[in-house]
Amino acid sequence: TVLVVDFGAQYAQLIARRVREARVFSEIVPSDMPVAEMLAKNPAAIILSGGPSSVYAENAPSIDRALFEAGVPVFGMCYGFQLMARVLGGTVDNSGAREYGRTDLAVSKAASTLFEGTPSEQVVWMSHGDACSAAPEGFEVTASTDVVPVAAFENDERKLFGVQYHPEVMHSTHGQQVLEHFLYRGAGITPNWTMTNVVDEQLALIREQVGTKRAICGLSGGVDSAVAAALVQKAIGAQLTCVYVDHGLMRKGETEQVEKDFVAATGIQLKVVDASERFLSALAGVSDPEQKRKIIGREFIRVFEQAQAEIVAEAGADGEDVAFLVQGTLYPDVVESGGGTGTANIKSHHNVGGLPDDIEFELIEPLRKLFKDEVRMVGQELGLPDEIIQRQPFPGPGLGIRIVGEVTRDRLDLLREADAIARAELTAAGLDREIWQCPVVLLADVHSVGVQGDGRTYGHPIVLRPVSSEDAMTADWSRLPYDVLGRISTRITNEVSDVNRVVLDITSKPPGTIEWE
Ligand code: XMP
């Protein structure tokens, strides 16, 4: 394992993904984890991420010097680089030498561990206010820019390396190469982490965890739960029953499609539970997003408990037998819900933060350490078809978090129609693979004046939120062709009653999240 020490912002996740792209397993740990605990994980290397603080600020996160004295190779990036410089006796100052964005880096030592084989001039992405003006003793400066004399340094003997810039971002042209040089050459790691290993490891773990008991799996129709279910089915076969909860918050035709595609691909027996009545009454009168998420999470579990009872009764076994609940929780869900990294809670994902305290199942979460693109690779490895693996993400709470305001049956019907039109037009235009997903949102609490037919209308706006993304952690709004947008707008305002306006969300993430709630 390579540990990525998280100094804030979301650089750590991107770094962790880049390390995995180099076929080395990585894990994110919070910067306040004691060094002894980090070392107890026996890391092959440690990376110190960037972060928003100044090393001088009061309460700025720091790191114990012991980290650099344990013989474990360390790579500091941006804030991590400055911290390393400061802790080891170099000079970091606030001289006004700041750089943001594209910067030209001049490599002064071509034969360095990090830069070998990369050009002597390369474009990197910087974001810093403080700068290192003198490297610690024993370190060699390997690169500089017009503004900062020490933009990279290394101490080969102690296996300590650092760069002022962000090698993990795409705009740093040789960033991945530099990172791989650190992993392979600096730390001597052999890249051998593959999805085949993940599958084998998980199969063994699941079999050991479940033994002869039985598990149920909530299938949402999304990639994550489908891959989790297929993985668990491969491990324990008929001991698994899948339950599909129709919470009434699904898109048009979705339930039928899931039944058809998934059963055809896996042969798993699927129990479909119609629970829309129950979800809608629990949601009545609620407009607060966090509350909606909590309610939906709670009802999910309740429905599973009922399904469990029924499955047990049908099987004629005794109730203790069905002890496990499989969930398709992903690494970003875990990190964003504040699980294990100390980062801020941004939203309660219904399958993590939204779980009630009195849950009676033991969880099986075989994808808990994986990013989305890795889950797709696992799906491929398991032989799932593209219709399942390449599906665009859809949130567990469904349309419930795409109605801004109270969720009612009428509003759901309206949103379902608008969403079906948008999806049909995007598919017809061949844009499904280009966009990551396109939430369609009903602003139910907003009215706007329109003129339709001969009269004044007072209807609701529909928001289109097409985004491109690599992992949903960051996203940009998709520049869709105007004629496609035009067709969607005309059709929605013509065909969906009570909607007299269609608007386009042109916000990236951050600052906006992908979903509106
Ligand atoms: P946000 O809105 O946080 O969404 O930028 C990031 C990605 O996660 C999906 N999403 C969810 N998925 N349960 C899920 O399974 C949830 O509670 C949930 N909330 C958001 C969202 O569609 C996007 O792909």
UniProtKB/TrEMBL annotation:
Record field: transmembrane: none
EC number, as in UniProt: 6.3.5.2
Catalytic function, reaction form: XMP + L-glutamine + ATP + H2O = GMP + L-glutamate + AMP + diphosphate + 2 H(+)
Enzyme class: ligase
Matches recorded under Pfam families: GATase, GMP_synt_C, NAD_synthase
Binding site for ATP: 220-226
Domain named GMPS ATP-PPase: residues: 193-391
GO cellular component terms, semicolon-separated: cytosol
Recorded metabolic or biological pathway in which this protein acts: Purine metabolism; GMP biosynthesis; GMP from XMP (L-Gln route): step 1/1
Residues at the active site: 78, 166, 168
Keywords: ATP-binding, Glutamine amidotransferase, GMP biosynthesis, Ligase, Nucleotide-binding, Purine biosynthesis
InterPro entries tied to this protein: Class_I_gatase-like, GATASE, GMP_synth_C, GMP_synth_GATase, GMP_synthase, GMPS_ATP_PPase_dom, NAD/GMP_synthase, Rossmann-like_a/b/a_fold
UniProt superkingdom: Bacteria
SUPFAM superfamilies reported for this sequence: Adenine nucleotide alpha hydrolases-like (SSF52402), Class I glutamine amidotransferase-like (SSF52317), GMP synthetase C-terminal dimerisation domain (SSF54810)
GO molecular function annotation: ATP binding; GMP synthase activity
Assembly information from the UniProt record: Homodimer.
Role this protein plays: Catalyzes the synthesis of GMP from XMP.
UniProt protein name: GMP synthase [glutamine-hydrolyzing]
Species this chain originates from: Streptomyces tsukubensis
